[in-house]
Write a structure and sequence with these properties.
By secondary structure, the chain is of the alpha/beta class. Helix content is about 35%, strand content about 25%.
Amino acid sequence: MIPAASFAGKHVALFGLGGSGIATARALIEGGAQVLAWDDNPDSVAKAATTGIATADLRGADWAKFSAFVLSPGVPLTHPKPHWTVELARGAGVEIIGDIELFCRERTLSAPTAPFIAITGTNGKSTTTALTAHILKSAGRDTQMGGNIGRAVMTLDPPKTNRHYVVECSSYQIDLAPSINPTAGILLNLTPDHLDRHGTMQHYASIKERLVAGSETAIIGIDDSWCAQIAERLERAGRQVIRISKRLPLTDGYFADGTNLMEAVHGRYSKVAFLEGIGSLRGQHNAQNALAAVAACLKVGLDLGEIQSGLESFPGLAHRMEQVGRKGHVLFVNDSKATNADAAAPALSSFPRIYWIAGGLPKEGGIEPLRGFFPRIAKAYLIGEAAPAFSATLGEAVPYEISGTLAAAVEHAAHDAAKDGSGEVVVLLSPACASFDQFKNFEVRGEAFRQAASAIDGVKPIGGAR
């Protein structure tokens, strides 16, 4: 835990008592603050009270005594309308912050030179965060990873000079972290997302920009116009900017040339790393993630040999193009996190011949946006409520069966793939659907796929499979 010593002796209000909220309250108390906490969920309030956190309805609190209000990132700050606690804090002139801001203040207070890599973007945040932390750890660096992935940031070990922090940041967290100041800040990409909470794309992009604007070095993917404009704006303002691109040769920066990761300096190119043969980093989208990790790790002092070794040993994230097993020429890949068509596209673009398991609770638009990948699909195995609609979209373009259940789909796909004589083929779960018609969540669905694959005679688990 990181004691929030910057608030020692001060009164702090806190709203949101989920896991990270309780952890944040405990960190404040450990640092010497007097915390008064609340939540709209009575069960959360009761649970917090059992841990020694003082609780009371903040509607009746004396806001004049609070030095700060710590808000859970899951609670609306601006849209669709501010939460009632936000209105009370603003009315009393109390600053509104979140746990990432607390972390930044503690780092500044106790170890301002501790390497801090912060990652944001619409897509790829978690993989880039996990990859960066893995490279650092595999190179023997003292590394802490958390934030919007894994551990709540205030449960990490306290800052010290040579301790490296790799922190995933959502737009909600950045919105509550006015002094965020990473050593290397990464902005991967921007597409419309969470507009119900941010109102407009412009507002959403401006929040994401804050992370790189406060960075010592801003690492920005420029393959979309929003990020390209941010890079130009920061460079004009005198910030150090490193551009990355998964598809465009750059004059300066880092870009992908097939599976090679290249550095450009005034138009002169050199290879800094490669992804050939690294199954956990297939696809253009993972090239972008790897480029960002490479740039960040170079910034904090790793050499190219350490970075390449870390890339090659990266096991990938569960449920994100996760290689779970192999039987001869058949690879089994769990991409259960792909809960809509856009999320399924990277996996479908990464393999040349696919036995595709798709379906579940359908999202708007179905799989029509994936039509360009249909030639890669040897056969589709449709499950759940979406099966009839998906079969209509596939029509005569792709052979398919309505398997009904995931277990049946895996069994049938494995049987058909084993008879395919065209080289390596993939049994891919990339559902393009939510899971809730048959599973509690995408994690449970992915675990069911893993178990069904491992139950097939002769399937050998792949290193890193969970």
